[in-house]
Every structure is written in C-alpha cells, then in structure tokens.
Design goal:
The protein has 178 residues and is mainly alpha-helical. The chain contains seven helices and no strands. It has one domain. Helix content is 70%, strand content 0%. α2 runs antiparallel to α6 and α2 runs antiparallel to α7. It is elongated.
C-alpha cells in the first residue's frame, strides 16, 4: 500500500516540481498506456479469429495480421502484403519503451517486473505466431495462435492484479485511479 501511495503522489504531481509538468507527464504516460492496451486488444481480437479458423490459409492470414500488429512496420518480419490493422508501431516497441520508462523512474520500481513480464509475453507470442506461419496444417496453426493469444492476454493483465504479476492494464489502472 505504501508503494501505491508513493506512485499516486508521483503521478499526481506532488513530488515533482511544477504541478503542470507533473500533470503533463501523467497524461503522457496515461496516453501511452491506453494506446498500448488498445493495440494489445486489437491483436488479441485478431488472434481469436485465427484460433478458430477453418483452413490453414485463413489461420495463417490471421497470424500474419497479428504478427504485423506485434512487430510493427519497421521490423523485417512485417508483411506488407497482409492488411495492417495496427498503428504500425508494434507491441514489441511499446513493451520496450515501457521497460525504459519504468527502469528510468525510481518511483516506478515496483513495475519493473511488470514491464519485463510484458516484454517477455509479447516477444514469446511473436515466436508462436511465427510457428503458426510455418505450420503445415490448420490444427497446429490454430494451436500456436491460441498460445500467442494467451500470452497477449497475460501481457494485458487485469486492473486488479498485483504490480509484480500484472500486465499493462494493472499499470494503467494505477495511473488512472491515483
């Protein structure tokens, strides 16, 4: 509880000189987290379509779409022949940026494990999506997509999770509610 109180003070601008700057920083962090959650939700939704696909081609098309959302347009694994439903940045980039933000802010130290977990989940989901693309049958493609979806759900987390066990929604909940 003490750590949550400290986070509330920091993000609320009480420990940072200049309340206006602190409010801007909090809004920027909140906006970043909201975009990250939106992109994760989109990837999870698209993965659900792939996990229930009827053919290998359909499953792999969905896997490509989710992979595009995950890796972003600047990654060599991005497939421009498949529609990009994401914002082009990539979940991996968002996760890495979050890790940097948290690691550079002593007051957010409780969320370092959260940020590392999110990065791990997204990177591992990406690996499973690539396996889905290499699969020779619909059953295996769907299974790998389903695993990737589970990892992205873990990265998203829930607002009530403990900081060390939660995902991006845990951190967003702390920023919004404090």
């Amino acid at each position: 509880m003490k750590k949550q109180w400290l986070l509330m003070l920091i993000l609320g601008g009480l420990l940072i000189p200049g309340v206006t700057q602190a409010q801007d920083d909090r809004q920027n962090l909140r906006g970043f987290l909201e975009i990250f959650v939106t992109q994760l939700d989109l990837a999870i939704q698209q993965a659900s379509f792939g996990a229930t696909a009827l053919t290998t081609d359909e499953a792999q098309t969905q896997a490509h779409q989710v992979l595009n959302i995950t890796v972003g347009e600047s990654d060599a694994g991005f497939d421009a022949t498949v529609p990009n439903l994401g914002d082009g940045v990539g979940l991996i980039t968002y996760a890495r940026r979050l890790t940097v933000i948290v690691s550079q802010t002593d007051q957010l130290a409780d969320f370092r494990v959260t940020a590392e977990n999110i990065t791990f989940y997204v990177a591992t989901a990406t690996d499973f999506l690539r396996q889905a693309l290499r699969s020779q049958n619909v059953r295996d493609s769907r299974r790998f997509i389903h695993i990737a979806q589970g990892l992205m759900l873990a990265a998203r987390g829930t607002p009530g999770d403990l900081p060390s066990e939660g995902g991006i929604r845990t951190l967003l909940s702390m920023v919004v509610n404090n």
